[in-house]
Amino acid sequence: MVRLILDSSTGSYPVIIGSSLNRELRAVVTRLDPTGVAIVTDSNVRPWAVKVAKTIKRAGLKTAIHVVPVGERSKSMSQLHEVLAFLERQRIDRGGCVIAVGGGRVGDLAGFAAAVWQRGVRLVTVPTNLLAMVDSSIGGKTGINGTRSKNAIGAFWQPSAVVSDLACLETLPAADYRDAFAEVVKYAVAMDRGLFDLLQKERPRLLAADRAMLERVVFRCVAAKALIVAKDEREKGPRAILNYGHTAGHALEAATGFRISHGRAVAFGMRVAARIALSMDLCSKRLVESQDALLTAYGLPDKAPRVDPSRLLSAIPRDKKARRGKVAWVLPRRLGHADFGHAVPSALVRRIVTRALA
Ligand SMILES: NC(=O)c1ccc[n+]([C@@H]2O[C@H](COP(=O)([O-])OP(=O)(O)OC[C@H]3O[C@@H](n4cnc5c(N)ncnc54)[C@H](O)[C@@H]3O)[C@@H](O)[C@H]2O)c1
Ligand SMILES: [Zn+2]
């Protein structure tokens, strides 16, 4: 088990990573001494929420579970309303606590409900998939979708604790597990050379979901994200580095009508970004090749779905990171280091995207 303490403007909180963390979860919640506990989950991960509820009850606290539907639809105003009605029924007051048990969607929805209910109640996050453990559970972004745009309504709301129990990954579909490695490779290429080497060396153990090795990897990803978030909690600048691979990645998601997984899209986006960097003499050919090989080794192939390059290109400026129509690219410079704010000639983007989709 490893424990990190993350600092935020609203206080520090622990992130605990390990296996079968019932005792730790109980200790975390007991220390918060909540007046009430409400658990939010989705129908796929309900069994894990039931386990969490048992743990909470063993601590002598009353709790109940609210189950939201699976999928992006859950990040809606109507589902938010349902969650808030649940908190009201459970009489969660300012001293209460929300526990989010699930992936990024449950985390975003339940986190936002915690941020606005009674002008803010405490939040404990129990991420159940690898993507949420290495990314969405860290950094305090919460929210739901607008009628037309993703994550349009939200708040920065830091959790009181994050408990990443690797045992939850047992029930995760293999494809979801594998695709989450795109975000792990993102941290490695953009921020952590040691992680890159670890991913190369320990691939068999990691693909077999070896818990000890996963603990090290999740720890390094959380540490990498925490370092950036600490510098830029409200996303004014440096946090953009976390967007590595996401510029072309988001555009591919949009151009395919979200039929491609986020991880696969980000892997595509990283391949594109590295090639742009190479063409601009900002990185070496070796970096492009090493990144390609690592992505392929983790089952993230370079084969992109059939998409018209023009559709993808026209989706790029609509990315929310685009300012006044200009896209500020995050580009890798050497393994373990990327920087942001690069303006890339659109003809070059077109050439590289067209080739990547060929
Ligand atoms: N807040 C942030 O900083 C941040 C960062 C990245 C992404 N996000 C958001 O996260 C969302 C995507 O995250 P996600 O893919 O984790 O979404 P998700 O919560 O929908 O999880 C994906 C699927 O995996 C299932 N699942 C989760 N854990 C499981 C387990 N242990 N066993 C079996 N099934 C399991 C879920 O039920 C769901 O069907 C998006 O809405 C995105 O906007 C937020
Ligand atoms: Zn992502």
Describe, in plain words, how this protein is organized in 3D.
With 358 residues, the protein is an alpha/beta fold. The chain is 47% helix and 18% strand. It is built from 14 helices and 11 strands. Helix 4 links the parallel strand 5 (97-102) and strand 6. The N and C termini lie far apart (45 Å). Bound molecules: nicotinamide-adenine-dinucleotide (NAD) and zinc ion. Zinc ion is lined by residues 135, 183, 246, 262, 266.
In CATH terms, the superfamily of the largest domain is Dehydroquinate synthase-like - alpha domain
Largest sheet data = 7 strands, mixed
CATH topology of the largest domain: Dehydroquinate synthase-like, alpha domain
Please give the order of strands in the largest beta sheet.
Answer: 1-2-9-6-5-3-4
Radius of gyration, in angstroms, nearest whole number: 20 Å
Quick check: average pLDDT? 95
Order of helices and strands: EEHEHEHEHEHEEEHHHHHHHHEEH
Quickly give the CATH architecture of the largest domain.
Up-down Bundle
How many distinct helices?
14
Distance between the termini: 45 Å
Bound molecules: nicotinamide-adenine-dinucleotide, zinc ion
CATH top level of the largest domain is Mainly Alpha
SS strand fraction: 15-25%
Structural class estimated from helices and strands: alpha/beta
**Which ranges are low-confidence, i.e. pLDDT below 50, for 5 or more consecutive residues?**
none
**Tally of discrete structural domains:** 2
Total beta-strand segments: 11
| Fraction in helix | 40-55%
Shape: globular
